[in-house]
Specification:
Length: 79
């Protein structure tokens, strides 16, 4: 009987902990200054800014196996 009570208490604690972590992550998204989605399937990489930018979408591609770009708040890229 005590084992069942202990399992129930642990299960409730795990559920409450998971709920509070999920809630805090949702609050972090609301407080972010910038929110940018990057899609890099290979070839052309596309960017979509949902929050904090003066641009909505951007894209770049390079011929190298690995490359990097820097985007500012206005959407201008620098290699």
């Amino acid at each position: 009987m005590t084992g069942n009570i202990l399992r129930t208490v642990v299960a409730v604690a795990v559920v409450l902990a998971a709920w509070s972590v999920g809630r805090l992550q949702g609050q972090a998204l609301d407080q972010d200054r910038y929110l940018i989605t990057i899609d890099a399937p290979g070839g052309t990489t596309t960017l979509a800014c949902a929050k904090g930018c003066n641009w909505k979408t951007g894209e770049f591609s390079c011929g190298a196996a690995r490359c990097g770009y820097t985007f500012n708040q206005d959407g201008f890229a620098r290699r």
